[in-house]
């Protein structure tokens, strides 16, 4: 039942966000004369980014994180709990960003909105973690299904990107939410994001080398996408003021969109025009209209669009805009495929169908940029009904993924989480460890002993302790070292040593210890490295307690059973 509600919520998220952007587009087209529209391309992005930053700062008053990375972060670090404001904040901010020309997509914010609805419904009904995780998967699948009207792809996306286990427990809710979202979208959205296309060619053995080469090319373009995205993100992160980021980013984006109007907004109109072979969109509202019809200018403009698109997308994010990278990925994919096909046909090296190569290249970019080859394969196959081209789709997506992995280990969705070691993965061992917290496993029933205490004082503490490890601290509870029962066993029956020997003469500082802020993966690695059964927990030099291998293992087994239970 909840999966139906989540599906409706995800469907309406897509409907509201899409219609909001179309409404803004309509206003701009109706109120700005076509003759001067080109010059306003510089102003609109700055205005939209400014509105977005102001809404976040003074209305939402909380950070609005990028859609899908935020969902992954919530799964791995917040037990699937997403703040309530995400049920509306992404709708408002992404509509302003994209509607006024921000060069990002709406899929991420739609998924974030749907996931927030699913998460808060799960919390409302006091569902357990595994059920919350499933609700987030259902919501994410619903959002993708509503946008592209591709329910199978949506389920694959939830499994491959959101990392929901596909089991008998999860399959039916994912199906129900996806179908519900598609029906909702058909009723209230109507227009397809991508026009329905059919593959105009069939797979032949003679094209095989060119599909392999296309896979390599899309993999290299994906690596370029990821590298530039990270470099620009770091550059903006180094700026101390959000207003400085807004000013610099807004001006840069305005200049880029002014010079290259196809980079205005999501980019689905250029994608559809490219697939139809109508290349006039390259020059529409452009200063370079006089070059229209020149085949060589088409090559130059497509190359420039591919190179500059990721700059426009990254700058939009860096300046404070809200959006996603799914649409930019499709944009770069379709132009990469079209450029590749035009080159082969124009030079006479080999005759290929340009529409087919453009479509298949989109799957290659999804596989490379998002590290989601199955999502790319099923999206293009489902949108085109082109299961007869399944083999080329599989070849290009696989080769692209393998190529990009040579240069980039994490997708743009998971890069920052991986850097912070907060990444939730399909590796169940790591996934379970990521859900365990050090501060929940700390044992505090150890008897501390002062470093200046005598052996006699230590013997008295031993008499009342049921542990064989003793943390040594100073008067301010700073950890000075520790003692094991085996280290003093030969002395405790020597009363003549009680006043002569001090604890500080017997203690040692452990080579390995942990902090309560460490991840469980770090704790597990330290247990593996040192081979000990107990590790001291020290925060800012102060003794907190101990964490034992036995307790970690017990908690791990319990969490694994809960995590795996169907």
Automatic annotation (TrEMBL):
One Pfam short name: CBS
Membrane topology: Multi-pass membrane protein
InterPro entries registered for this protein in UniProt: CBS_dom, CBS_dom_sf, Cl-channel_core, ClC, ClC-type_chloride_channel
Molecular function via GO: chloride channel activity
Lineage of the organism: Bacteria, Pseudomonadati, Bacteroidota, Bacteroidia, Marinilabiliales
Major location (coarse): membrane
GO-annotated cellular components: chloride channel complex
Keyword Transmembrane: yes
Name of this chain's protein: Chloride channel protein
Origin superkingdom: Bacteria
Keywords tagged on the record: CBS domain, Chloride, Chloride channel, Ion channel, Ion transport, Membrane, Transmembrane, Transmembrane helix, Transport
Subcellular location: Membrane
Transmembrane regions listed in the UniProt entry: 38-60, 87-106, 132-159, 166-188, 208-225, 246-264, 295-312, 324-344, 356-381, 390-408
Domain CBS, first and last residues per copy: 442-499, 507-566
